[in-house]
């Protein structure tokens, strides 16, 4: 693929959306073509599935049925949005992707890892992120941030935000295990820092792992 595929993962309120916006701005200042997208969602049909799942309508079917619905949304998202962008040379920044299914439905929902592996294989058809940034912070802090944002916007909690604190603590461990298992693809970023510090850590990860995306930033300094 001509573009790079970067996914952002982590628990509630970790700062993914905020940092994706900052990274997009940074890359655009370097004249890099960037598409921001999200899961579940990112294409018209996948957004319909998003509304259904996050509205809690699939909860009674259990974690495996939910995993299938996330996978169905992902297939459409890949076909309609991600793959065409990558083929055209546009970098894709995606707010959550397949690791969310591994963490939420797989680890937390106690689905057999082999089954999740097979589901992921048929869903992704070989498309894997070039880099996954896992924004890590204590669950209490993430939930407090997400709660404050909801209060500001007058929104309610969704299907997963309603789970108790032990769910979110286990979620953090699930993401750290994913990072440990795939160190070449994943970088854990300490998200319990101020916004600028998190942005700097993310940029450092990009410079190290995907220098082809950041090299334009280095050139003017080299010339000077
Ligand atoms: N899900 C799943 O189960 N299986 C799957 O396969 C997939 C998803 C793909 C989607 O929720 C849900 O679907 C998700 C998992 C599940 N669980 N939930 N809920 P979503 O898309 O609606 O929400 P989210 O992905 O969890 O994101 P979020 O809670 O909106 O958080 P965020 O994007 O990481 O954070 P943010 O919006 O950038 O920041 C939150 C607030 O904190 C905001 O007010 C910021 O200004 C503030 N913030 C951010 N960074 C900082 C720092 N560094 N310091 C202080 N304050 C900060």
From TrEMBL:
Family: Belongs to the thymidylate kinase family.
Annotated source species: Microvirga ossetica
Protein name stated in the entry: Thymidylate kinase
Domain of life: Bacteria
Catalytic activity: dTMP + ATP = dTDP + ADP
Role played: Phosphorylation of dTMP to form dTDP in both de novo and salvage pathways of dTTP synthesis.
Entry GO CC: cytosol
NCBIfam families named among the record's database cross-references: DTMP_kinase
EC identifiers of the protein: 2.7.4.9
GO biological process, one term: dTDP biosynthetic process
InterPro entries the record matches: P-loop_NTPase, Thymidylate_kin-like_dom, Thymidylate_kin_CS, Thymidylate_kinase
Record domain Thymidylate kinase-like: where: 8-202
Any matching Pfam family: Thymidylate_kin
Protein keywords: ATP-binding, Kinase, Nucleotide biosynthesis, Nucleotide-binding, Transferase
GO molecular function: ATP binding; dTMP kinase activity
Residues that coordinate or bind ATP: 10-17
